Amino acid sequence: MGKYFGTDGFRGEANVKLNVEHAFKVGRYLGWYYGQLVDEQTEADESGSASAGTGYTTVFPRRKARIVIGKDTRRSSYMFEYALAAGLTASGADAYLLHVTTTPSVSYVVRTEDFDCGIMISASHNPYYDNGLKVISGSGKKIEAEVEDKIEAYIDGKIGELPLATGVKIGRTVDYQAGRNRYIGHLISLATRSYKNTKVGLDCSNGSSSSIAKSVFDALGAKTFVINNEPDGTNINRDCGSTHIETLKKFVLEKGLDVGFAYDGDADRCIAVDANGCVINGDLILYICGKYLKENGQLENNTVVTTIMSNIGLYKAFDREEIKYEKTAVGDKYVYANMCENGHCLGGEQSGHIIFSKYATTGDGILTSIMVMEVMMDKKQSLASLAAEVEIYPQLLKNVRVADKAAVKANAAVQAAIEAAGEALGDEGRILVRESGTEPVIRVMAEAKTDELCAQHVNAIIHVMREQGLVQE
User: Fold this and answer.
1) DSSP E strand stretches across 383-449
2) 7 pLDDT exceeds 90?
3) CA–CA separation, 165 vs 398, rounded Å?
4) Rounded to a whole number, what is the distance in angstroms from the first to the last CA of the chain?
5) How does pLDDT run across 167-204, given as a tens digit for each residue?
6) What is the pLDDT of residues 398-430, one digit of tens each?
7) Which H/E stretch holds residue 417?
8) Which of 151, 186, 315, 318 is 20 to 30 Å apart from 302, CA to CA?
């Protein structure tokens, strides 16, 4: 991780850790950087044409770099959108504005419509006062670390000032809602069956999916019931969405729905709820979809990619079905990197980032909903019966706010407590203590046969952290 960019972009409290000057400079650097790449490619094309021996020279128009911007519903997203657009156009790039949309839609538009890169303005599941900048490469993946390093160097003044575009070289902004509409069409096209007479609940988290999800399920024939789809700039993720699943559980039971899906602020996560109000998290979704793909001969390499946070119960179920699995660090970019390197088609996180590489290069909450619906409709089974094959071990995760994450990792007493808990659990559980990639937080997780054992070991480790003066109360 760099000074500004963590595992999921440049994120922090708006106008405190991440301010409009940062956004302007990100736009300035990306506009210049991709402008240079476009010029180099144009020159290479012209050179190749002139040396082809035909006697003719093809003149290639000097196009500007094309960068697409999407945003979620936070109040500060509008401020950052304009700052980015100003920086991009000042460096000579054209900025295409998708307006309020999802992170996966930006990825889709970038990779299918000849854009040089994309930027999503969102802090995902964080509170409304935070925001973030996710930079997406032309192939729809998260930007390379080397480019992030160069952006950080420019922000900190370690790179000389970049030239401002003048005259006709100045970029322009383009209203590009059509790109978002094409993404909606793409999602609808993936369903192979009608959802007629199926009662589906959607919790849009007062975020990006508010402008997309209902129209997709309506088009597929579902009886769609929606909550938390009235964003006001400050209510994104507030007591709703995939991080507050109890809201959707209550809604599904009250309305007698067949299934419910909850998204986070930028809709790259999905957590489901079955008709009985039971939560179907990312691990269970990976099992349901992984088994279905294997049954249909579509699970590449017979392997599902997970992270170190996945439940022991998932692995036991995979073992029973003779499905292989990989484990990566936490973060969907690590999951996708493993999938690309090894040719796997399904991977994801317990938190609901699920990647179907046949259709997407990033987690996509609405796409995940459609894939789960496909299994339910094809097998004519409820979500509860599909998930019942997995026995999930109790798991407890507590987030501890600290002043210095590195100091916690280096503390001998804390490490001794972690080792003692691991030895006590043996093969019937595990302890995982890791840093958050986006917040000043240490995550302490235990997995064991009972909730009591989980609480005992998590609390013991946190107690030692407090004794060592590492916790910010």
Assistant:
1) 395-401, 430-435, 441-447
2) no
3) 49
4) 26
5) 999 999 999 999 999 999 999 999 999 999 999 999 99
6) 999 999 999 999 999 999 999 999 999 987 888
7) helix 412-425
8) 186
* DSSP structure string for 337-390: HHHHHHT--EEE-TTS-EEETTT-SS--HHHHHHHHHHHHHHHT--HHHHHTT-
Exposure string of 133-155, with b = 16+ CB inside 10 Å and e = fewer, is bbbbbbebbbbeeebbebbbebb
Residue with tokens 């959607």: 202
**Looking at residue 124, what DSSP letter applies?**
T
242 catalytic, yes or no? no
- Of the candidates 105, 107, 122, 124, the residue annotated as catalytic is 124
Instruction: Find, among 206, 17, 16, 222, the residue nearest to 125 by Cα.
Output: 206
Give the single-character DSSP code of 302: G
Q: Report in angstroms the alpha-carbon separations of 384 from 255, 259, 313, 343, 354.
A: 17, 9, 16, 31, 19
Q: Which two tokens stand for residue 140?
A: 């729809």
**Alpha helix (H) residue ranges in 296-331:** 312-320
Helix, strand or coil, per DSSP, at residue 20 = helix
- 134 pairs with which residues across the strands? 120
- Distance, CA of 407 to chain centre: 28
